[in-house]
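Hi all, long-time lurker, first post. I run a small reading group and we've been trying to get comfortable going from sequence to structure in the token notation. Rather than ask abstract questions, I figured I'd post a concrete chain and ask someone more experienced to write out its structure so we can walk through it together at our next meeting. Sequence below, copied exactly:
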Amino acid sequence: MVQVFNLDTNSFAGTLDPAKIESMEGIAAESFPLFFLELFPNNLFLVMTINSSIVSVVIIGAFFATSIRFMRNKKPDAIKAFKEFRQTAQVVVKSVLTNVNKLMPYGFQRL
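-- Answer (accepted) --
Happy to help. Here is the structure in token form:
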């Protein structure tokens, strides 16, 4: 394939600037428990605004989901309000997406 398409491996390799090399050395030097603890954010709302912290948001979401799942069986009355909020939010998001999809042909027409 490489010879058929006349590919060069240099075009696939990225460049590493000194800051990136230093960051990678720092990650390699830290212990696993410290690395694992840094996955959990100190400020949840700040982490949700940063695109590079998706792993932390997924971990927090998994904690919320498992705790709600356990509480659903133990205290269904306490979870009822959260369940209704989730269902209401789901209906609102579906409505917004439906309206956006209805407007998409006009956006493409303007292009």
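A couple of things your group might point at:
Helices lie at 18-29, 32-37, 44-49, 54-74, 76-110.
The first helix runs from residue 18 to 29.
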